[in-house]
Amino acid sequence: MYRMLLLILFTLVSCGQNRSEDIEPINSNINPIVNPNPNTELSYLALGDSYTIGESVGSNDRWPVKLALLLKKAGYNYTQPKIIAKTGWTAGQLKAAINDANIQQKYNLVTLLIGVNDQYRGLSVESFRTEYIEVLNKAIDLAYNDPKNVLVVSIPDWGVSPFAKNRNRAEISEQIDLFNKVKREETTKRQVRFIDITGISRQALNNDLYIASDGLHFSGAMYQLWAEEIINRSF
């Protein structure tokens, strides 16, 4: 009986060790972004769609603006972000807008949040992968061709919004997860940091505090949570 108890205990300990070893932190091989000099002014470019431009919230409630403010408080002297984003843009449309802008400047930080409109319009995951890779490569190029200067933010789940109350919310969430899986795969391949805010966005279900006045997009309170998650994960 004593020997059997020892065998069971050994088995439980071994299983626990194996489980912990199988769990690898997201982008664990990417070091935090280092502040070279608090007195050096750093540039910031935010690329995206309605979430980045802050549809239905004030300009100060946009998450890139909130992120820049948090960075300043932490001693990173980033300027107010230049934003290239528009409500409704797919990855392909963002790519075209970047090309049209003919950007000559390079940026110390580039953030990228795109993909929700590809999912919403019913575009295939593989077509999104192709367009996303091109947009991500452009983001890296604009960040002094240094992947460490780029942050990719996952697609939030619009299925939790009041706008989606008569839709199949479980199906929307499943599709969002599939698109995010592609984003994570292609992002980590290029040694770019991937910040997952999708779970945080799902806190908006039945919580008006986190929903903008249009009933679809997220509020400044939600964008604050995203900004805090980004800075906690990256800096």
UniProtKB/TrEMBL annotation:
Q: Which domain of life does the protein's organism represent?
A: Bacteria
SUPFAM superfamilies reported in the protein's UniProt record: SGNH hydrolase
What GO molecular function terms would the record report? hydrolase activity, acting on ester bonds
One Pfam match, given by its short name, reads: Lipase_GDSL_2
- Listed PROSITE patterns: PROKAR_LIPOPROTEIN
Residue stretches making up the SGNH hydrolase-type esterase domain:
46-225
According to UniProt, the name of this protein is Lysophospholipase L1
Q: Which organism is it from?
A: Lutibacter flavus
